[in-house]
Amino acid sequence: MDNFIYETPTKVYFGKGEEERTGKLIKEAGATKVLLHYGGQSAKKSGLLDRIKGYLEAENIDYIELGGVVANPELKLVREGIALGIKEGVDFVLAVGGGSVLDSAKDIANGIANPDIDVWDFSLGKAVPAKTLKKGAVLTISAAGSEMSNSCVITNPDTKVKKGYSCTCNRMDFAIENPELTYSVSAYQTACGAVDIAMHTIERYFCKGEDTYLTDSIAEAIIRSAIKSGKDAVEHPDDYVARANMMWASSLAHNGLTQCGRSFLMAVHQLEHVISAHFPEVAHGAGLAALWCSWARYVYDANIPRFLQYAHNVWNVDIDFEHPEITINKAIDIQEEYYRSIGMPVSLTELGIKEADLEKLANGCSQNKTRVLDGYKKLGFEDMLNIYKMAL
Amino acid sequence: MDNFIYETPTKVYFGKGEEERTGKLIKEAGATKVLLHYGGQSAKKSGLLDRIKGYLEAENIDYIELGGVVANPELKLVREGIALGIKEGVDFVLAVGGGSVLDSAKDIANGIANPDIDVWDFSLGKAVPAKTLKKGAVLTISAAGSEMSNSCVITNPDTKVKKGYSCTCNRMDFAIENPELTYSVSAYQTACGAVDIAMHTIERYFCKGEDTYLTDSIAEAIIRSAIKSGKDAVEHPDDYVARANMMWASSLAHNGLTQCGRSFLMAVHQLEHVISAHFPEVAHGAGLAALWCSWARYVYDANIPRFLQYAHNVWNVDIDFEHPEITINKAIDIQEEYYRSIGMPVSLTELGIKEADLEKLANGCSQNKTRVLDGYKKLGFEDMLNIYKMAL
Lengths: 392, 392
Description:
The structure is a homodimer.
Chain A: E1 4-14, H1 22-28, E2 33-38, H2 42-45, H3 48-58, E3 62-66, H4 75-88, E4 92-97, H5 99-113, H6 120-124, E5 134-139, E6 151-156, E7 161-166, E8 174-177, H7 187-205, H8 213-235, H9 240-253, H10 267-278, H11 284-299, H12 304-315, H13 324-341, H14 358-365, E9 373-374, E10 378-379, H15 381-390
Parallel strand pairs in A: 1-8, 2-3, 2-4, 4-5, 5-8
Antiparallel strand pairs in A: 6-7, 9-10
Helix pairs in contact in A: 1-3, 4-5, 7-8, 7-9, 7-11, 8-9, 8-12, 10-11, 10-14, 11-13, 11-15, 12-13, 14-15
């Protein structure tokens, strides 16, 4: 078990009606001017946004609004939010939405607090925010885990680069998680969320690391729960139990709990980020579903005992020790079938990606053949291209 | 799933050599005068205490010392620490030791920060600390989980009352967890720790609550890991993997993770606290081991499906749906056998407690027949007495 630092400072208020606390929590945080950040129409149409404004007004909290965050949130709106926030003297950022809104809010908070640094330098790894603004989230989609994570992922459409960065400043001060607010999420987006949640932990599970049986066992618990709750929520959108277990899995899958004592490199996320940077209409979860099984078939032999443990403890496949590859492939097939059953793609073709696109993707992921992903199995440009080809 | 608040602000530095950070962390916290709080001889003899002092001195941090914390930490020393801390202008409390030292340190920090309130009123529930001092811990025993918990348990030997209280102020700012520091813990104390760790989560598992399958599954993972790592550490004191998984289980078992969405009442802990208040030589973990199986046999029929899930998922017992009580009793028997195998008592007699003592204990636990423990099954004075009798 490697040394590790565990830090999850975000205070979570979980359950029905918890969003009613929003105004009081921001008041307690001592904020004087809030940037209320959100996405498109859904928070408006559902009435949630008006309710949130009401909670702020009830506490006499001054706020300005910035909507319009899109899936795969873009640098341009982040820059706009930073300029607006500095001009208006914003000292708190409140995100109402899903992972894209939260990530955009994190980047804006970091940008406002560090006006002398170009915010894109955080994504590029050229700078680390030393301070940030206070910030909170009212979560409306279970998926990205941004509500408790230390990461934020921003896309620069001009350069087709989608990049995440991780730091303590990216932790929300509070996250409000009311599963009922996710009832209106479509079956497709719910399925994308289920894939993403499980994948945050599956990727950590397949990082390098030994002797972490407690972390492994917790990881398996979270993956199984994401699989079950995701499917239940797709089939029964108003099922509180499914929505609640899925929402809590979203937070735990990506807050650091499932990487304690292990190294950290999310290879399939890296392979996918290039896809959604080039094809912004591809939902992140769908991209992950389309890639993972091909990644797994390409790499599994790097650590057979690990994959057998996964096959057995997550997918309940009996282990055939004489033919471990049969066990492993069976588990991968079951996972593929699960993706199909919740309406997720299991190939890049289903996402409209063609063979002619693949070299561009592999070039992007390998940063023009300069980057090797040294995770479960080392992946250079050729490996990336092979995986994309297998996933066609 | 009930609404819940999840808050684990303690930053954990886990692994070999992490205690070397102590001075730097306290400096970063802006402390000017530290109260270095510890127990008896072991931290001195091992050289750890001198090393910690060295780390403080290397950062030019001023400190005073207060040793002498005993198992089941006592109010008298807490009062002494508060008086000393106020007199000396202490603004940081550093605990070096196990749960007793950490709990004593928490109470002292709360007492110094709230000089107008009698610190025992916090334990009695007559007051809640509104503020506290900054504090950190260098953990030397895996057991109590105090390093990440929001609780502290103090004993008043004059009144034979041992009482815990929970609040945000009881969270450590940081916890340093180096599993190697626990190599020297005796087999008996290691076994007591293993019992206590698992019990923190077992008790939460058997609180009221429905539809928390993610929390349940994480709880089962932690219980299983505590069982395995505890036994391995008893048998091989220098086994890093065992000590590390056990130490991390200690923190996760009691930091709130395993009660998310469920009610909270630790009945067996309440039954045990009276024992160690009256028989201070009884180690808390040993008292829990001596009681739990009797509690389980007395109460299991309150929720058969729950106990079957426990029997299967924790102790790997095949479920006999036609005779569920056979399955359940088999699991309890296996747990009892496990306790024996690690040298733990499975009866009060082994702890030197006699039938004549039991009424006094039941009176204590029921607070002279005024308190009912409304947990997995409602327990009044008569029930408590029955359980103590079964445990003889």
